[in-house]
């Protein structure tokens, strides 16, 4: 069914915030991997855990689109979605294929700190496809979502990620998004959260990300997308 005339439509600004986080962190991954001294399993484990978290966030982000966004756009947007949605789906498949390769390379590298160059090259291929995908999605898909997807339906995308993420990682991943997030968008995202989360998350999440970034990137203020 199409949205009712008086239903509020999707506010897609949170997607731009998520994309900024993904761009920043995936751009830094190849160099992070190459900087690990061969044989330094302790440092490899730190970077590998970070990479696995990012890949999990990306997988859930795309899974939500596959399940909840593409079908609605195909049903409602007609010719406007006829070409772009299949392209989005194929890009997701391409990202999944590289992610499968990354998932095979990560465990032995984590264990021994060997094979970092092969893993870094896989991250570079993943980054290339991901950046192309994010740019195209912002240019073609998000305007369609604003026209054809309701605010309530858009909210389901975030709920999907929350429901399938380990609870212990949620504050950190929110802190990753907050690092370059627009204050108005952050307030909007938290507006319907339980009161404790609304009070605690703006304080806790940035601190968790700062500590995580210091451990992973060597600084609590890694290069932002606009300055990297």
Protein model, in words:
- It comes from Streptomyces lanatus.
- Residues 12-145 form the Hemerythrin-like domain.
- This is Hemerythrin domain-containing protein.
- InterPro entries: Hemerythrin-like.
- It holds the Pfam family Hemerythrin.
- The termini are far apart.
- Helix content is 79%, strand content 0%.
- It is an all-alpha fold and 228 residues long.
- The relative contact order is 0.17.
- The model has no long low-confidence stretch (mean pLDDT 95).
- It has helices at residues 13-34, 41-77, 79-82, 84-112, 116-148, 151-164, 170-178, 183-190, 195-217.
- Helix 1 (13-34) runs antiparallel to helix 2, helix 2 (41-77) packs antiparallel against helix 4 (84-112) and helix 2 (41-77) packs antiparallel against helix 6 (151-164).
- The protein has 9 helices and no strands.
- The chain has a domain at 13-164: Four Helix Bundle (Hemerythrin (Met), subunit A).
């Amino acid at each position: 069914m199409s949205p009712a005339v008086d239903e509020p439509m999707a506010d897609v600004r949170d997607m731009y915030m998520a994309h900024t986080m993904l761009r920043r962190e995936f751009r830094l991954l190849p160099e992070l991997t190459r900087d690990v001294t061969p044989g330094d399993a302790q440092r490899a484990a730190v970077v590998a855990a970070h990479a696995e978290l990012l890949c999990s966030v990306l997988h859930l982000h795309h899974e939500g689109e596959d399940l909840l966004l593409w079908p609605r756009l195909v049903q409602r947007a007609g010719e406007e979605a006829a070409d772009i949605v299949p392209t989005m789906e194929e890009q997701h498949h391409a990202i999944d294929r590289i992610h499968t390769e990354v998932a095979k390379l990560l465990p032995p590298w984590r264990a021994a700190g060997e094979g970092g160059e092969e893993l870094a090259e896989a991250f570079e291929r993943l980054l290339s496809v991901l950046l192309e995908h994010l740019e195209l999605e912002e240019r073609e898909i998000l305007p369609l979502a604003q026209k054809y997807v309701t605010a309530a339906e858009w909210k389901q995308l975030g709920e999907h990620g929350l429901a399938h993420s380990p609870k212990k990682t949620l504050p950190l991943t929110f802190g990753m998004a907050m690092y370059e997030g627009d204050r108005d968008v952050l307030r909007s995202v938290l507006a319907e959260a339980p009161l404790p989360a609304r009070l605690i998350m703006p304080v806790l999440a940035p601190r968790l990300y700062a500590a995580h970034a210091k451990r992973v990137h060597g600084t609590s203020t890694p290069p932002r997308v606009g300055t990297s």
